[in-house]
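Continued from yesterday's entry.
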Amino acid sequence: MPLALLALAVGAFGIGTTEFVMMGLLPEVADDLHVSIPTAGHLVSAYALGVVIGAPLLAALTSRLSRRTVLISLMALFVAGNALSAFAPGNGSLLAARFLSGLPHGAFFGVGAVVATAMVPPERKARSVSLMFLGLTVANIAGVPAATLMGQHLGWRATFLAVSAIGLAAIVSLALLVPHDREHAAASAGLRGELAALRSLPVWLALGTTVAGFGALFAAYSYVTPMLTGTAGYAETSVTLLLALFGVGATAGNLLGGRLADHSLRGTLFGGLVSLGVVLLLFPLLMRVEWSAALAVTLLGAAAFITGSPLQLMVMEKAAAAPSLASSANQAAFNLANAGGAWIGGLALAAGFGTTSPALAGALLAVLGLGVAAVAHTVDRRRTAPSTGRVVASHVPEESGALRG
């Protein structure tokens, strides 16, 4: 695999760390800025809002630029946002800085996925995407716990300075390892062409599968701490280690999904969604004792992230004329899944259905994701040209070779 994938993974590691570390630092931030923890929780929402807005917007506005230049610029914006977070004097300025930090998130993964697939043969496209996402999943194993401990001992501002340093390392890596792609910039269809490619029904069905499928994950994962402490009986001090197990499962699932999707993209997607639904259905049973609860958290990460690479590649294939914009839009869909899944899981809790009820709500979302994926499959089959017997397929266009090697 090309070394440039390492540069993309370094950027993904920094992004994954800053996205999730705020959840572990809320008490420290709230105390330092003299606000309540629920108020400090808006910092998580501000970042997610930045992702949802920035992903399609930045990808569209930079469509005529070299993708190498875009990636470096996005990472520079990421560094600026985290540095401003470190020096924010109050909650309002920190909210703005977190929003700024989230803006490049989706576009980086979206454009990065296109760059990753352009550097490898067609039979390794899904695997290349999974290797980029490896930085995100490893962040949950090492980056987030280490950054949380740093924030607790050295102050939360030190955490964001450290994340800024990771971003600078990613910029250097991107500049050294990612090849120039001037041919893409010259051949780009521009903003109008990018937006026109999103009018396709298969693109929206693929995005809908992402929202439902990953909404299933976040319906349960958002409330996994009360499940572990209230149902399984773990002490609160054990939760950080257990969440690292989620990262281990996510890393394994991501790598497995990339390999399987190169053989059968749609089969891997269906299999991953079925596995996720089964794991979530078993959550109430598995959460009864400590050892099986730890297994449940690991399996949740694995089952959910098996679908990561297939979904990313499928969206890119359905918008062949605008893979960067569609790929970035998929990251916005992922964050909508985060917010929507957490909300639906919260409704189950508020209704008094029990501590593990968010997992059952997640299982229903997994079934919904399967349904949307099945509709997408039906739509694809109906696009078979009856007069010739040929399937009208859309694939990620081959790059000119400037990105190969």
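--- second protein ---
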Amino acid sequence: MTDLQTRPAAGRPSAARRAAPALLGYAAVRALGLLALALWSTARGGSAHSLLTARWDSLWYARVAASGYGYEVRLPGGDLHSDLAFFPLLPWLERLGAALTPLSYADAGLAVSLLGSLAAAWGIFAVGDRVAGRRAGICLVLLWAVLPVGIVQSMAYSESLFTALAAWSLYAVLVRRWVAAGTLALLAGLTRPVGLAVAAAVWAAAVTAFVRNRSAAAAAGAPVPVRAPGEGARLVCGMLLAPLGAAGYVLWVGHRTGGGLFGYLDVQAGWRNGFDGGRAFAGFVAHQFASFPAALAGLALTVGVALVIRLYVAGVRQRQPLALLVYSGLVTAMALGASSYFGSKPRLLLPAFPLLLPLAAALAGTRAARSAAVVAALAVAGAPYGAFWLNGSGPP
């Protein structure tokens, strides 16, 4: 595969039937991961359910769902942790789920995550199928499922919900459904700060579509661009909608805190989180080489970052659609450039699923038995790692 361009959808079976192998495979991989987590946690005298719903960020989301915003914790070192750091869509859905069902806020969050992960898998398949064919779409979903940090997809965190919204927004861009793309980008922007990457992808694709349309019209000698009736209005509407979620929440936080445009950055600073272009992360990695066996961790981090960059370059060379390149590039830059929570960087990269497209295309080009064996081996290796990682002392 040398040219990743979107393919026509004529003559395809129903969307559900076409995606079924990917969704079934995804569910199997996640079930294996949850089984490994349950066994590992039980052996240590812990609770897999608590790890999934009642630790770290999931506690903050459930608290916002129950009581709204306004909770703060002043740490002994002086840092101020505010719940305003957490975007509102997941807590809203948790509150809705708890109101409509007997579930607690935390369990409603787990339900949203589980349903969101399936929606994300379907959206990832739809993107992969559209860009590189059905087998590549299936492989893309399975590779996303078997990531060593894939257990986060089953936690009451916002990653699965965000990835679902991002994937379907990108798919809407690929099929030129601009209003749907903008609406989904708006919702993604209400889910995580990196929702701005989805909005940027919508804008990049929309501007490119407009320029190409104008160029084609000029080449044909047409006085105005030739497009489907109303497409220009839908394109502009999608562009206007896309950034409203993230921008609206950031402005609301600035108004609430009195910090104006920089109020949300002040909230993040209280968590010692910010963006420095990767300088702090590079220093952290370099520090690992000062001793042994920490040097092994430093080596693993270096190899991991190099692999991420190589995969992105491969996507550029294979001419992935611009929307995918903009999205995955910004998600990667924001994850690697964050100045704190170094152990969470693999989780922050989880939504950047287009990075896996070159690997998925290569895997799809092998015999079915070989690709199945590769995925099975990765799933068997990743399940205990996820259980070990989640049972650690620090947040994922």
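The first helix runs from residue 15 to 43. The mean pLDDT is 91. Will compare against the first tomorrow.
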